[in-house]
Design goal:
The chain is mostly helical. It has helices spanning about 50, 60-75, 85-90, 90-100, 105-110, 115-125, 130-135, 140-145, 160-170, 180-190, 195-250, 250-264; strands at about 1-5, 10-15. The protein contains twelve helices and two strands. Strand 1 and strand 2 form a beta hairpin. The termini are far apart.
Length: about 260
């Protein structure tokens, strides 16, 4: 990306001869060209759908992602995915970085970068305190919306992105908003699918075990209570028999029996 001045105004030019395309010139055997579905572009600026090579049509939203990377770099001094990690990673590893790793918030990225906040602020001709406020404002949601892994959640056109930037500069509410908790949970499950499945199975096993243990404990308590009631009933019957036996040998009972025979 080059910035020049034209008619007194800054003009941005995209310079990337690696993906230049011949439109009106016939290709020859000496012409370098790209094959269908060939992976082209600079990895750290590449959208997930480009890196994944899933066969989906690449449209304007891929450019929106690259613009988001550029804006992220302008704010923090680094791209969302560390280029040094990419250079030291294998083909499949850096593809997963682009497709799966969510970008850190710009404020977090700045706090963990090797450059100090003062250096970043000086390079951008801004006070460090103002830079920190900027990195915690609405511009964060603009950047993260442009960097959405799910392209259906990005800005659909460059005009939409430019309009939100205009809203930010004119202190109007931006259209980009924080993602919902449901969406964040969905993304977490997608990123950690195997761990979530394993944890879910473990929780189901644990809950099943607790339920079975609870039923067993309840059954044991019922059996114990029934045994206690049976024991008390038996003790009560034994006590009653003993009382009747003691009354059978008493003088009062003998007199009552004698009177009853005399009446007969």
């Amino acid at each position: 990306m080059l910035v020049t001045v034209s008619d007194g105004k800054p003009l941005v030019k995209v310079i990337d001869f690696g993906i230049a395309k011949a439109l009106n010139v016939e290709l020859t055997e000496k012409t370098l060209y790209t094959e269908f579905r060939q992976l082209i572009g600079t990895p750290q600026y590449m959208s997930p759908e480009q890196a994944e090579r899933s066969g989906v049509d690449i449209d304007t939203r891929s450019d929106i992602y690259s613009l988001g990377v550029l804006l992220y770099e302008m704010l923090t001094g680094e791209t969302p995915v560390d280029p040094q990690r990419m250079r030291s990673a294998a083909w499949g590893q850096w593809q997963r970085m682009i497709v799966d790793e969510e970008p850190s918030r710009p404020s977090v990225k700045v706090s963990t970068t090797l450059k100090s906040n003062e250096d970043l602020a000086k390079q951008r001709s801004i006070e460090p305190a103002k830079l920190r406020r900027l990195l915690s404002g609405d511009i964060v949601w603009i950047v993260l919306k442009a960097l959405e892994k799910d392209r259906s959640r990005r800005y659909a056109t460059a005009n939409q992105l430019a309009d939100d930037v205009d809203r930010l500069l004119s202190n109007r509410p931006v259209l980009a908003t924080p993602p919902s908790k449901r969406y964040l949970l969905k993304k977490f499950v997608q990123r950690h699918r195997n761990a979530v499945i394993f944890t879910s199975l473990l929780l189901i096993s644990l809950i099943t075990g607790l339920v079975a243990t609870g039923f067993s404990a309840a059954w044991a308590i019922r059996e114990r209570n029934a045994a206690i009631l049976s024991q008390k009933a038996a003790e009560s019957q034994t006590l009653q028999v003993r009382r009747l036996a003691s009354l059978a040998g008493s003088p009062l009972l003998n007199k009552i029996e004698a009177d009853s025979l005399a009446e007969q």
